[in-house]
């Protein structure tokens, strides 16, 4: 056997070993992530302390869901969260993308100042504006309106900065000039050419924006005070504090809180499953040198 054949055989064996190790590690991590949900749905609490404190009464996962539906406005809270998170994600992604595009594709007078302003705003904690926003909402009688939770989520300096970096690595002004020569307008160029080009960046930021909006409880807590307007994050936090007092058995209380947690984690997981392919493409694109 020649030296080249031995080298190719060694490379194949090395690649096979790396693939096997990758699959084993991936399966192990997946099992660790899924195991708590499987034990929760099966109705078993694996915490030894809770097993010791458990009474003879048992509670299935379906019964836990029935209790959650009985004591909480779960459907309405889930609907409110989907409206807030869905509109916030789409609006923020689009606004951030068009802002980043304007910083990269066009030359205008205050572009550098605006770019520095975005970086400065990134360093400022958003929670310091809560008092002023609270006064604004209640002064103009805008409480209990979902739009007042959506508006602050539309502006995300970090998303603008991330998309700007992505465009600087992938955007070419030759594409812009070619589209203009073909008679395309600026809005059409952005919607038909730039947005598909930014798909990996949009998918990445969409996951973070959705997750941040889905789990947000500070602004909804001060703006939405009516029970029928509260999102799932507020309702889950309130019910988790009451569950221990409502049910004497700590294991049953934990199972009920855990069943409610599934509704909190399921939408982000589903969104990630749909957008994971675009994220991988973005990582691969960023690793190629032009």
Shape: flat
**Average predicted confidence as pLDDT:** 79
Overall radius of gyration: 25 Å
Q: Would you give the CATH topology of the largest domain?
A: MetI-like fold
User: What share of residues is helical?
Assistant: over 70%
Gap from first CA to last CA? 39 Å
**How many β-strand runs?**
0
Going by CATH, the architecture of the largest domain would be Orthogonal Bundle
> Structural class from helices and strands?
mainly alpha
Give the ordered list of helices and strands. HHHHHHHHHHHHHH
Q: Give the C-level CATH assignment of the largest domain.
A: Mainly Alpha
Give a quick set of tags describing it.
single chain; 290 residues; mainly alpha; MetI-like fold; disordered C terminus
């Amino acid at each position: 056997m020649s030296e080249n054949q031995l080298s190719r055989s060694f490379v194949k064996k090395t690649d096979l070993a790396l693939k096997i190790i990758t699959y084993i590690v991936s399966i192990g991590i997946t099992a660790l992530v899924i195991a708590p949900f499987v034990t929760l749905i099966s109705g078993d609490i694996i915490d030894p302390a809770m097993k010791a404190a458990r009474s003879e009464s048992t509670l299935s996962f379906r019964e836990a869901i029935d209790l959650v539906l009985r004591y909480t406005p779960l459907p309405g809270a889930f609907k409110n969260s989907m409206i807030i998170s869905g509109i916030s994600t789409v609006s923020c992604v689009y606004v951030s993308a068009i802002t980043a595009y304007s910083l990269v594709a066009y030359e205008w007078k205050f572009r550098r100042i605006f770019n520095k302003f975005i970086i400065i705003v990134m360093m400022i904690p958003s929670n310091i504006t809560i008092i002023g926003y609270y006064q604004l909402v209640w002064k103009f009688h805008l409480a209990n309106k979902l739009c007042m939770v959506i508006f602050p989520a539309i502006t995300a300096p970090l998303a603008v900065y991330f998309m700007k970096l992505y465009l600087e690595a992938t955007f070419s002004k030759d594409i812009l000039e070619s589209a203009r020569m073909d008679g395309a307008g600026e809005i059409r160029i952005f919607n038909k050419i730039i947005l598909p080009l930014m798909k990996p960046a949009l998918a990445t930021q969409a996951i973070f924006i959705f997750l941040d909006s889905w789990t947000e409880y500070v602004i909804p807590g001060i703006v939405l005070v009516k029970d029928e307007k509260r999102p799932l994050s507020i309702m889950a936090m309130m019910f988790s504090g009451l569950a221990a007092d409502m049910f004497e058995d700590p294991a049953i209380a934990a199972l009920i809180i855990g069943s409610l947690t599934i509704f909190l984690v399921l939408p982000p997981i589903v969104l990630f499953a749909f957008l994971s392919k675009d994220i991988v493409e973005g990582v691969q694109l960023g690793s190629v040198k032009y």
